[in-house]
Design goal:
With about 260 residues, the chain is an alpha/beta fold. The protein contains ten helices and twelve strands. It is about 40% helix and about 20% strand. The strands form three sheets. An eight-stranded parallel beta barrel has the order 1-2-3-4-5-8-9-12. Strand 1, helix 1 and strand 2 form a beta-alpha-beta unit. Helix 1 runs parallel beside helix 2, helix 2 runs parallel beside helix 4 and helix 5 crosses helix 6.
């Protein structure tokens, strides 16, 4: 893994991006920690041209974005236009909002919509992915929704941005799932999984939890991963997401980067 291929997911810093000034200052701090790339969670309070200017000024690459779930399915052309301004060639469907995972028919409807968006984005030179949480490990007729998404979507049009924490939270094993994604796992969300003294699951800095990142990173390399994206939703060290991502980045560089 090349260290310049480690990115920060900006959702980790959502409380520090309330306006244009705060977002610009947060991006500056992210760069000072040592990240060279970010994945934007939507585009925040800055219009695309201004965001592109700020990113360029800080020497940061926008490796990918998380766009609004509904817009990706209903107005992918607008997404293509924004990503073109950013010079970004990858985006991800972040969460199945308003989708019905209680029936096979509901999952298939979403898969058809994902295929339509993925094919349109591919024609525009953009890689489209699906980001999982734990709800995709709900079973229908003996199969997980995640199994169905893999089977019902076109692997050339819909990649999977696997999230290591949420796979574990859903009862899966991240390295095993990566082994199934060769050729369609260009983006990977790296998060560690732990439990507190009462057994309640919690987010951990990478290397501080229970996931086997040696196995995960080996599987990611075999799967063809191009970007390793660090995210921590909550449970930050000293309640400071910057400190948590600093710790995770240091671990990844020390153990896996060249």
């Amino acid at each position: 893994m090349k260290k310049e291929r480690i990115a920060a997911q900006m959702y980790s810093f959502r409380d520090y991006c309330n306006d244009a000034h705060d977002l610009a200052e947060t991006l500056k701090k992210v760069r000072s920690i040592g990240f060279r790339a970010v994945e934007m969670s939507s585009l925040g309070p800055l219009p695309p041209h201004e965001l592109a200017r700020v990113l360029d000024g800080e020497g940061l690459t926008c490796c990918s974005t998380h766009e609004d779930s509904e817009e990706l399915l209903t107005d992918p052309e607008g997404v293509v236009e924004r990503l073109g301004v950013l010079g970004c060639t990858s985006t991800t469907y972040p969460y199945p909002r308003n989708q019905d995972f209680s029936t096979v028919e509901g999952v298939r409807r979403l898969c058809k919509a994902l295929n339509r968006t993925g094919k349109l984005l591919k024609k525009a030179g953009i890689t489209f992915g699906y980001h999982n949480h734990n709800l995709e490990f709900h079973k229908l007729n003996g199969r997980t929704v995640m199994d169905m998404i893999l089977a019902e979507t076109d692997p050339d049009a819909v990649h999977i941005e696997l999230d290591t924490y949420w796979v574990q939270a859903g009862g899966g094993e991240p390295a095993e799932w990566l082994a199934r994604l060769k050729g369609r796992a260009s983006l990977l969300h790296l998060k560690d999984y732990g439990v507190d003294a009462k057994g309640v699951s919690m987010f951990e800095e990478i290397g501080q939890g229970n996931l086997d990142f040696g196995k995960i990173m080996s599987a990611a390399k075999r799967a063809g991963c191009r970007w390793y994206i660090v995210e921590q939703d909550s449970d930050w060290e000293d309640e400071d997401p910057f400190q948590s991502l600093r710790m995770s980045l240091a671990y990844l560089k020390r153990e896996f980067a060249d």
